[in-house]
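Saturday, quiet lab. Running sequence design on the structure tokens for the scaffold JK sent over.
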């Protein structure tokens, strides 16, 4: 039976039918669905995908050319921020002064079939990038499991996927053009403006706005992805072997259970077929079951685990196959908020076990599956993977529920394991701790930042806290 059918059946018949979804036993929504109100006649508020960040910029502008971008940056009043697709959970975008959207800077600029490189405008959304690269026989070596971001927004935050042999998206950048607040357009690559290049490959939008980005690609390829439910400890026991055996391997540990969903992705073989279908609402099913049973005194947690084991135990594999740019991303229909830290790769299992144990021991209202991925080390100054192979562990909370209290509990665990926060996801670290997490190049980055933006025009409140600016 498919995951979708089984989970929904178990809800309808097994759990809710037997126990009833008693009034008052569900989570209480505590987060406003939209933190902004729009008053006609007033400036239009900006809001991020997750609905937890907003601002009301005095001036918004979408340049259609590099000349317009440079002019806008130079003449902008107050704090200037760039926005790609607004898919960051952290406050990297908000400004009530000037917001520059890269939406209209989109498309393929040129490609080099010999070097297997392609240059795209920085506002190109990842879902447009895939077909554009495919049209010239190229594909990015790795991609995250959703394709909504703009290329520039993804590079600014070192967006990553999974695979022990693959770095973050920033690690595939071999060149860029960077527009600065002083009105320059800098070519940056390994030979020209090399220090700026090292800083700008993960800049959190603190150095200027990239207009073009050149990627080192692979010849286009097809993938086959296999999803199945397994025991978390069995997966941990074989983690190294699994990561070696598959081009990409990740898992989604399920809180309050001993189970996880594993995703193994490899180059497609002739005859591979799509079997079954993804259920973008599956996380809502977890929540319904959890709300139905977890309140039961003394046995709630055990009951939840039992229902899940029954519901998920008999599930068949879901297999997806096709061009890489179609297989990597998944549809996200459930709004959530996310915190992610990257710990040293070898600390991944212990850190994850401690998170799962803490959720259970403290009875935290957190049943959204975690995400567990590996990323190869790189040499990019502020990349979460700088100098060390990383294990990126994400914790999510449903968009209408309080995330601050539960994330605060889990964040302590990430700190214990020396975790570096994802720049685009929720965390509470400031300059003091971050300097220590990036001992090699934190100061180098600050020097480049001060050189390119001496007046701090690009510093909103969040970036000021990050950089102590
Ligand atoms: C549903 C969902 C799933 C996600 N999955 C993943 C995942 O699998 N892996 C992962 O790593 N992250 C993931 N994220 C996080 C997200 O991909 C990152 O936060 C990403 O940076 C968002 O890109 P964006 O285009 O929306 O950028 P925005 O959020 O709009 O901006 C991010 C930063 O980039 C800067 N910026 C934007 N464009 C430029 C430019 N041209 N030049 C310079 N700076 C610029 C902005 O000023 C800001 O500082 C996910 C987020 C969501 C909502």
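Result came back. Writing it out in full:
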């Amino acid at each position: 039976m498919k995951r979708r059918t089984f989970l929904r059946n178990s809800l309808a018949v097994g759990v809710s039918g037997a126990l009833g979804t008693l009034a008052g036993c569900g989570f209480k929504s505590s987060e406003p669905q939209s933190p902004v109100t729009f008053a006609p006649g007033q400036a239009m508020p900006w809001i991020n995908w997750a609905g937890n960040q907003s601002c009301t910029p005095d001036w918004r502008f979408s340049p259609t050319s590099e000349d317009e971008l440079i002019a806008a940056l130079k003449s902008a009043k107050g704090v200037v921020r760039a926005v790609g697709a607004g898919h960051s959970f952290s406050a990297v975008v908000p400004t009530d002064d000037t917001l520059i959207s890269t939406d209209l800077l989109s498309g393929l600029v040129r490609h080099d079939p010999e070097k297997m490189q392609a240059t795209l405008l920085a506002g190109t959304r990842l879902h447009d990038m895939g077909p554009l690269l495919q049209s010239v026989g190229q594909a990015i070596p790795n991609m995250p499991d959703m394709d909504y971001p703009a290329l520039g927004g993804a590079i600014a935050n070192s967006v990553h996927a999974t695979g022990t042999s693959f770095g973050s998206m920033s690690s595939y950048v071999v060149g860029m053009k960077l527009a600065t607040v002083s009105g320059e357009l800098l070519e940056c690559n390994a030979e020209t403006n090399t220090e700026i290049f090292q800083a700008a490959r993960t800049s959190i939008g603190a150095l200027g706005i990239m207009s073009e980005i050149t990627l080192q690609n692979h010849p286009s390829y097809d993938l086959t992805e296999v999803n199945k439910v397994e025991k978390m400890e069995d997966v941990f026991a074989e983690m190294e072997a699994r990561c070696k055996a598959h081009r990409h391997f990740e898992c989604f540990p399920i809180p309050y259970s001993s189970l996880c969903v594993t995703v193994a992705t490899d180059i497609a073989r002739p005859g591979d077929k799509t079997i079954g279908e993804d259920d973008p609402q599956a996380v809502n099913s977890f929540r319904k079951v959890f709300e139905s049973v977890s309140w039961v005194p003394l046995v709630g947690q055990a009951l939840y685990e039992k229902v899940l084991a029954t519901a998920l135990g008999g599930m068949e594999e879901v297999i997806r196959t096709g061009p890489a740019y179609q297989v990597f991303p998944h549809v996200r229909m459930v709004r959530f908020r996310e915190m992610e830290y990257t710990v040293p790769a070898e600390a991944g299992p212990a850190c994850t076990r401690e998170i799962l144990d803490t959720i259970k021991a403290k009875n935290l209202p957190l049943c959204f599956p975690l995400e567990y991925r590996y990323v190869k080390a790189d040499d990019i100054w502020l990349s979460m993977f700088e100098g060390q192979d990383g294990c990126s562990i994400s914790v999510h909370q449903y968009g209408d529920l309080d995330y601050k209290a539960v994330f605060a509990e889990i964040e302590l665990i990430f700190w214990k394991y020396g975790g570096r926060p994802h720049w685009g996801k929720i965390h509470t670290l400031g300059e003091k701790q971050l300097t220590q997490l990036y001992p090699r190049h934190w100061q180098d980055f600050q020097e480049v930042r001060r050189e390119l933006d001496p007046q701090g025009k690009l510093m909103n409140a969040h970036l000021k806290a990050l950089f102590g600016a």
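Notes for JK: Confidence is low (pLDDT under 50) at residues 1-25. The radius of gyration is 22 Å. Ask whether to fix the surface positions before the next round.
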